[in-house]
Specification:
Distance between the termini: 65 Å
Shape: globular
Oligomer: single chain
Keywords: 4Fe-4S, Cobalamin, Cobalt, Cytoplasm, Iron, Iron-sulfur, Metal-binding, Oxidoreductase, Queuosine biosynthesis, tRNA processing
CATH architecture of the largest domain: 3-Layer(aba) Sandwich
Family: Belongs to the QueG family.
Number of helices: 12
CATH class of the largest domain: Alpha Beta
Main location: cytoplasm
Low-confidence stretches: none
Order of helices and strands: HEHHHEEHEHEEEHEEHEHHHH
Strand content: 5-15%
Radius of gyration: 20 Å
Structural class: alpha+beta
Cofactor: cob(II)alamin; [4Fe-4S] cluster
Largest sheet: 4 strands, antiparallel
Strand order of the largest sheet: 1-2-7-4
Mean pLDDT: 93
Catalytic activity: epoxyqueuosine(34) in tRNA + AH2 = queuosine(34) in tRNA + A + H2O
CATH topology of the largest domain: NADH Oxidase
Helix content: 25-40%
Length: about 300
């Protein structure tokens, strides 16, 4: 066995030990297929007010411009599917935001993985990324065989579904590279048919500026009144396209204690949400990704659903 396969196998088994669902590896190079897609998406203003998507175009498509000397992109998946979901009479929260903010949880795991690589293999340099830098997570995960990009533009994996986070280590080590898997969406259009705001404008293309997650998290101004009555009670994020996807029949509950929700969260009713105080918000969402929308943002979203 040559050193590349030996190191690759070590990284994959270590990733599993640390708690990642799976791990795939790609050569760090320019994402040729993604370049025209990203350009068109931005040109169509599908990113709405998310102006940061326009920045670092070159770095987004080429990890060697982002991390000097990089040779490999190690993509990792971490399951967040909950064992229990919210009370049915409640304003809804995307499942990924039930527990501790994933940025902290995953960053720790990525640091552990990088330290293990350095201990075992020697001087390896690189950087860890969790959805906070110009890295096209889904494209890299698909390139490294962890799944295919579904018609709702999320990564999908057979036997697993799509309720997982994607993260990367970009490192200066040559490794054995994985291959992309085939698309298994077939003729299914469940996600397109179910999207409450018709944000999936064509298979594999999402107009981010029409997505409920965009309105409830990214948009800082008032939500346009044309969308009244279309939010299906989602107050932070939206899981509709994932909930209806047949592949998510295979989702299994995560085993990461930090992703467990605050005990109060699952039992809160619409009335509780409407009367939520700043203290309760701070208590229930102490280390949560929901803090991103802030107390006032969540109140705005609830008011939009209620009125």
């Amino acid at each position: 066995m040559d050193y590349k396969s030996k190191y690759s196998q070590f990284i994959k088994s270590e990733a599993k030990r640390i708690g990642f669902l799976s791990c795939g590896i790609s050569k760090a190079e320019f994402l040729e297929v993604e370049a025209p897609r990203l350009e068109k998406w931005l040109k169509n203003n599908a990113h709405g007010e998310m102006r940061y998507m326009e920045n670092h175009f070159d770095k987004r498509l080429d990890p060697t411009k982002l991390v000097e000397g990089s040779k490999s992109v190690v993509s990792l998946l971490l399951n967040y599917y909950p064992s229990e979901i919210q009370n049915h009479d409640a304003y809804k929260l995307s499942k990924y935001a039930y527990g501790t903010d994933y940025h902290f949880v995953i960053k720790d795991k990525l640091k552990q993985l990088l330290h293990s690589i350095q201990d075992q293999i020697g001087e390896v340099h690189g950087r860890a990324f969790v959805d906070s830098a110009p890295v096209l997570d889904k494209a890299w995960a698909a390139k490294s065989g962890l799944g295919w990009i579904g018609k709702h533009s999320n990564l999908l994996t057979q036997q697993v579904g799509s309720f997982y986070f994607i993260a990367e280590l970009i490192i200066d080590l040559d490794l054995e590279y994985d291959h992309a898997v085939t698309d298994h969406c077939g003729t299914c259009t469940a996600c397109i048919d179910a999207c409450p705001t018709e944000a999936i404008t064509e298979p594999y293309v999402v107009d981010g500026s029409k997505c409920i997650s965009y309105f409830t998290i990214e948009l800082k101004e008032n939500i346009p009144s044309d969308f009244k009555g279309q939010f299906d009670d989602w107050m932070f994020g939206c899981d509709v396209c994932q909930d209806v996807c047949p592949w998510n029949r295979f989702s299994k509950a995560h085993n990461e204690p930090l992703f467990n929700p605050h005990p109060e969260l699952l039992s809160m009713t619409k009335k509780d949400w409407e009367e939520i105080t700043k203290d309760t918000f701070n208590k229930v969402f102490k280390k949560s990704a929901v803090k991103r929308t802030k107390f006032e943002g969540l109140q705005r979203n609830i008011k939009f659903l209620k009125d």
